[in-house]
Amino acid sequence: MVQLSVEGCPLQVPATSSILQAMVAAGQTLVEGVGCMGQGVCGSCRVLVRRTGDSEVRTALACETLVEEGMQVAFLEYFTPAARHRYRMDELGDSWDALARIGEVFPEAEHCRHCGGCDRACPKGLDVQRGVNQAVAGEMAASAHVFDECVMCNLCTLACPEHIRPNHLGLFVRRMLASRSLRPSDLLRRLQEIERGEPAIDFDAPGARPPV
Amino acid sequence: MASGIPYDLARQRWQVGATPPKRADEVSVPDLLKGYHPDHGPRARVSLAVGVNRGDPCQPDFAAHLQANALIDDVHIAGAQLVTTDVLVIGGGGGGCAAALTAAKDGARVILATKLRLGDSNTVMAEGGIQAAVGADDSPQRHFEDTLRAGHFCGEPELVAQMAMDGPAVIRWLIELGMMFDLEDDDRPLGGKLLRKKPGGATAARILSYRDYTGLEMMRVLREAVELEPGITLWNRCPVVELLSDDHGRCAGAVVYNLEWRCFVLVRARSVIMATGGAGRLHLNQFPTSNHYGATGDGLVLAYRIGARLRELDSFQYHPTGIAYPRHLAGGLISEAARSAGATLINGEGERFVDELQPRDVVAAAILRECAEGRGIERGGQVGVFLDTPSLEKANPGILAKRLVTLRHLAKKCGHDAAQEPFLVYPTLHYQNGGVAIDRHGATGTPGLYAVGELAGGIHGRNRLMGNALLDIVSVGRRAGAAAAAQPADGGTLWGRAGIGHVHAWQRELTLAGLPLDVKAPQLFPTYAHFDLGADAGLGAGMPAHGVGGIR
Ligand SMILES: Cc1cc2nc3c(=O)[nH]c(=O)nc-3n(C[C@H](O)[C@H](O)[C@H](O)COP(=O)(O)OP(=O)(O)OC[C@H]3O[C@@H](n4cnc5c(N)ncnc54)[C@H](O)[C@@H]3O)c2cc1C
Ligand code: SF4
Ligand code: SF4
Ligand code: FES
């Protein structure tokens, strides 16, 4: 058994629990700050953690973090500032305008202080700051790649003193890249065939009936 | 769970790189399923006693939820705030988002209410990919036939044909919104070819993916699009606890519980689109689950109560390879990719016991048999069999680092190196094959109510092919969104009387059938969430305080 505290409340739980399971095991109500419950993809279970003997408070995902003796945990409210970057994918013009659009939608991005706050905050260990700087420089593919495994937990957004919202910038770049450049030939061809009404479904084909 | 062979002993019997013989097996597939698959056998189903499906077979634990009383009564909503909208979408997974985006684009005012936070869903957890027949060696016809066959010909041909034909347009729609897909050659986005994988049970390579987190890529794009869409009002942390009906038996909106403010809100809507996903978190048959925290089958309970017909309620998918150990990750999914790449399953005696690439139900039943007959492996109180990733790596050096990236991450979370130590796996409750019966627009038997996604039934028959769920949710989601937005704004539907009259009729039915009124559903959260709506909302005098003001 391990003793830890969550939101100031002492809990005693089996050592093999994640922080989320610790709350469940301790009989606490758990109806927010949870989603995928262990896969680490939904980015909901954001916590601040201080471990025994560690002077720093660190960010983590509660479903992926095992409890430790003496650990202190606080959940983070989901942080959505009222003003956010607004855009519509279908109103962005063609890809020649990409750099201008990045600057318009995310004007703060070029003010990055290189403080590394976003990197420290990221529970997935992504090079967030590099991704931001690459986006500003127009290196879109490289920037998009940085955010490949981003789970949109918004911890970097919470950390950024310049209100850049790095993960949303990363997603913006990714979306632009896909919607403005991805045109696979096989998909184009099949779409054209369907438009011409070529492949119709035959409900009476032998393969559409159960074998007798 | 049954006990098994101690882990250390099993480790001694297992040799990395060895090719253990497969145990000869006399048992036929039907007998294996009958003996060990939870969908079969004598305790697999009961007959429903109330509702439109009276007399139909249903999984017993699930039947208890379907035949329960409502969470609320008239008095609880008497003073509730009333809001009106054109379209109410319930559920913030991929299906709900696709429906909401389409309805808003068609000019409807949309409210999207979801239980947790937008995107907290099964959709974000999908790994493998999405089907669409784009290859030159493939066709919508093949997709159609493969899907029907895999579903044991219980699917609705009309719906399956529509989904197969929609496939390419769905991929185009997702790309236009900004979703990426893997290409054969990543440097050729213009005019290259989509990378295709072959799902178990299909006749052509048809799975399109983004890495091995396709659902994450899809969901973060859909979520951003919904959040930035001015036509959609988003209500996070607002589970729906009951539907509203009018005098004509139409669905007229829903009762939402706002977890933040602890109050009920009545939403009147011209159309309601239900997209609340599956029921894995009900832990049917006491199984672990791969599903997200909110997958408690709420929409099915509510749709049934208001009179919509359900189908295939006794057919669920148990994925063979859930994590068995460590306990804190139990139920988590190890994708089929590991087995299709050649990873074998080994029991505590060091034997192979099944052809790993058989359909999911067969492999799952085989694992359950090993565990039931004492040949499973026990570690830290958990029982399972080995998924032999070290031998896979030895035979294909580099495969874990290059092709099975998520698997490597997963092993790290389990506290081991996938190249050195096998996983311990046990079947996990994964998917609801059936659901609310729908037509081609997602319309249910109840006017005004649409059903989309895992909650809807009729496409996958009694078994779903990998990759068809992600296609189904967007295909039907877009159609339901368009149909709902096209409902005429005749005023009458919004201003007539609406309430929970159907609940009163339901209570009479329950009483007549001798069923108790104190069993309530939908459950909203798993039991271990320690959530009690009555206590949380302060309903009734003398309610116990538990559930109010937890530390979270
Ligand atoms: C681990 C895993 C891997 C998978 N891999 C694949 C794959 O590779 N390919 C594939 O095709 N399919 C896959 N599937 C299946 C597929 O992901 C799902 O079937 C599909 O995403 C369901 O989408 P949905 O929109 O219907 O439901 P969900 O995405 O589950 O969304 C349901 C939403 O409704 C909300 N909700 C629930 N109850 C209420 C309520 N009372 N009020 C308001 N909101 C409510 C939930 O919080 C959630 O936001 C996988 C599933 C899992 C769990
Ligand atoms: S980049 Fe930001 S939002 Fe994405 S995982 Fe890292 S901290 Fe979370
Ligand atoms: S936190 Fe903001 S300012 Fe600091 S490095 Fe990251 S993006 Fe730049
Ligand atoms: S619950 Fe989804 S990331 Fe932790």
UniProtKB/TrEMBL annotation, chain A:
Limits of the 2Fe-2S ferredoxin-type domain: 1-79
What are the record keywords, sorted? Answer: Iron, Iron-sulfur, Metal-binding
Occurrences of domain 4Fe-4S ferredoxin-type (ranges): 103-131, 140-169
Q: What is this protein called?
A: Ferredoxin
Q: Which organism is it from?
A: Piscinibacter gummiphilus
Give the GO molecular function terms. iron-sulfur cluster binding; metal ion binding
TrEMBL record, chain B:
Alphabetically, the GO molecular function entries are: oxidoreductase activity
Q: Which UniProt keywords apply?
A: Flavoprotein, Oxidoreductase
Domain FAD-dependent oxidoreductase 2 FAD-binding as annotated: residue spans: 86-470
* Superkingdom of the organism of origin: Bacteria
Required cofactor(s): FAD
Report the transmembrane regions from the record. Answer: none
Family matches, as InterPro entries: FAD-dep_OxRdtase_2_FAD-bd (IPR003953), FAD/NAD-bd_sf (IPR036188), SdhA/FrdA/AprA (IPR030664), Succ_DH/fumarate_Rdtase_cat_sf (IPR027477)
Protein name (record): L-aspartate oxidase
The organism encoding this protein is: Piscinibacter gummiphilus
